[in-house]
């Protein structure tokens, strides 16, 4: 198995390394503005894959990542209920992100899970 270390700063200006197994899902994290922006970019595609197809709310709440030949983001989004988006970000940022799938019918306490 291969492991990758993500390095991030902490509030105390120290550096923490988080070990992430290639192919495995990361720990769940609270969604931030960057994750919300990714979701906003794929909102129309998500609406086209789901019913109802017009969400009044579309708020990213939490996410997990999976390191592959790029990164998969599994994002729990509050709509009228909850959905989970699978968003792929290639290694080359010029290629743009792609909505790979949507899980519907989730609840607030539904865990973020891997899906195809």
Describe the structure.
- By secondary structure, the protein is mainly beta.
- The chain has 1 helix and 7 strands.
- The strands form 2 sheets. A 5-stranded antiparallel beta sheet has the order 3-4-5-6-7, covered by helices on one side. The chain has a two-stranded antiparallel ribbon with strand order 1-2.
- The longest helix is centred in the middle third of the chain and has 17 residues.
- It is globular and about 30 Å long.
- 16% of the residues are buried.
Individual helix count: 1
Distance between the termini: 21 Å
Which regions have little confidence, pLDDT < 50, spanning 5+ residues?
A: 1-18
Strand content range: over 45%
Strand order of the largest sheet: 3-4-5-6-7
Question: Taking Cα atoms only, what radius of gyration do you get, to the nearest Å?
Answer: 15 Å
Biggest sheet record: 5 strands, antiparallel
User: What overall geometry do the principal axes of the alpha carbons give?
Assistant: globular
What percentage of residues falls in helices of 4 or more residues? 10-25%
Write the element-wise H/E pattern from the N-terminal end onward.
Answer: EEEHEEEE
Q: What structural class do helix, strand and pairing data support? A: mainly beta
Total strands: the figure is 7
Overall average residue pLDDT: 85
